[in-house]
Amino acid sequence: MTRTVIRGGLVVTAAEELHADVLIEDGRIAALAATGSSAAEAWSADTVIEAGGHYVIPGGVDVHTHMELPFGGTAASDTFETGTRAAAWGGTTTIVDFAVQPVGGSLREGLDAWHAKAEGNCAIDYGFHTIVSDVNESVLKEMDSLVDSGESTSFKLFMAYPGVFYSDDGRILRAMQRGAVNGGLIMMHAENGIAIDVLVEQALAAGKTDPRYHGEVRRELLEAEATHRAIKLAQVAGSPLYVVHVSAASALAELARARDDGLNVFGETCPQYLFLSTDNLAEPDFEGAKYVCSTPLRPREHQEALWRGLRTNDLQVVSTDHCPFCFAGQKELGRGDFSKIPNGLPGVENRMDLLHQAVVDGRISRRRWIEIACATPARMFGLYPRKGTIAPGADADLVIYDPAAVQTVSAATHHMNVDYSAYEGRQLTGRARTVLSRGTVVLDDGRWLGRAGHGAFLRRDTCQYLT
Ligand code: DUC
Ligand code: ZN
Ligand code: ZN
Ligand code: ZN
């Protein structure tokens, strides 16, 4: 048995803060005891990690990533190897990525393809949601068995991207009805893609080809409308609903109203919507392409609404939707036609630190930081308390976090496999000093000690946020 003790840090979970030592045995947390107590002093250990002046927090849980996602004639530039390593550098120790059902194929084929990409390559633990691109009878049956086995207990549907991932309302309703019975959580990309495609065509015909028009045609109204429609469909089906990447204040208002009416609807937002805006999309020399993602960035005033939603719990989760494409050769595919810019932003390495900056700035509390970035994502997707907290029995996925370290975010120093940073030049206070994945130190003081293949596939329970 290997024993590690982390001494002298401030343990921060979603529920409490305490000056405690943490005992790890064989990759799991065995005990917590007040620092200096006779119980803690009595522990013997093979390794002692000093954490004085630092926080000891659960590793980040990022439930929305797209490593190696084929999109727009190219593929997201982070592999499972580079992307999970970058995640760990940024204090994230679990990701849940999306396996895509191939057109005309089964969920099984999608999962097999994603297992093949990830297995043996991940530095941290990982799970899969499934993107359902064709709801049919055999897919509905597959959903049952995937929930039963825990291989995938959540399913993403798209109201956007006609001809690619899009599902019409009837298919959405059928999937929700199935989820209401089997416990699978439906995740929704809520944008009216049929209407957006009309506006795209009209914009291009009028010579509006710059990246900023991506933000203009993907109208806020069409996110709010789709969010409203998704909520009503879920209400008809009697199922809970998780809306991914909420970017618009009016879409958030739809969620808040439904929650006030007692519905189990949940919302996720992402750092790009909290920290970036349409100002970035309007950057000259095609630089705006770096900020093209869907849902799109919104005008600055939406940020305040999203922060408020995070404080009031109308939004429960911050994940990244990490989907990086290099500027050179990938984003550039859309020069002269914004609709050909591959959609997505890098961020898996930056999320924990950006949100810690919000703690420093007084926007959210320290415990809320852990709640929205670790505990709730784990509970929402059936990984709790194995992931997302620090408690006896949990995996020892831990970050020893230096709250005073100052860093300047830059593509020159980040670890994501992408040639730009969406947060270039931003100064942040706070940084992961030591990162453990199931008790193994993978990062220490700027030295990478992890390895591809350490990360294991996670079977998951159904949503635990409802019980
Ligand atoms: N949005 C993105 O920005 N990228 C990938 C898929 C999506 O819905
Ligand atoms: Zn989406
Ligand atoms: Zn409310
Ligand atoms: Zn996504």
How would you describe this structure in keywords?
467 residues; alpha/beta; TIM Barrel; nine-stranded mixed beta sheet; eight-stranded parallel beta sheet; 32% helix; globular; binds dihydropyrimidine-2,4(1H,3H)-dione; binds zinc ion; metal ion binding
CATH topology of the domain at 59-380: TIM Barrel
| Portion in helices | 25-40%
The top-level CATH class of the domain at 59-380 is: Alpha Beta
Structural class: alpha/beta
Weakly predicted, low-confidence segments: none
How much is the radius of gyration in Å? 21 Å
Based on the coordinates given, report the CATH architecture of the domain at 59-380: Alpha-Beta Barrel
Q: In CATH, what is the homologous superfamily of the domain at 59-380?
A: Metal-dependent hydrolases
Amino- and carboxy-terminal Cα gap = 35 Å
**Separate helix tally:** 14
What does the largest sheet look like?
A: 9 strands, mixed
> Which outline best applies?
globular
- The count of β-strands is 19
Query: Bound compounds, please?
Result: dihydropyrimidine-2,4(1H,3H)-dione, zinc ion
Average residue-wise pLDDT? 98
β content, as a range? 15-25%
What does this structure look like?
This is D-hydantoinase. Its cofactor is Zn(2+). This protein is α/β, with parallel strands linked by helices and 467 residues long. The protein has a domain at 59-380: TIM Barrel (Alpha-Beta Barrel), CATH 3.20.20.140. It has 14 helices and 19 strands. It has helices at residues 38-41, 80-89, 107-118, 137-149, 169-182, 193-205, 212-217, 220-237, 249-260, 271-275, 278-281, 301-312, 351-360, 366-380; strands spanning 3-12, 17-25, 28-34, 47-50, 55-58, 60-65, 70-71, 74-75, 92-100, 125-131, 154-158, 185-189, 241-243, 265-269, 317-318, 398-408, 427-437, 440-444, 447-448. Strands 1, 2, 3, 4, 5, 16, 17, 18 and 19 form a nine-stranded mixed β-sheet that branches. An eight-stranded parallel β-sheet has the order 6-9-10-11-12-13-14-15. Strand 13, helix 9 and strand 14 form a beta-alpha-beta unit. Helix 4 runs parallel beside helix 5. The two termini are 35 Å apart. The mean pLDDT is 98. Residues 189, 244-245 line the site of one zinc ion.
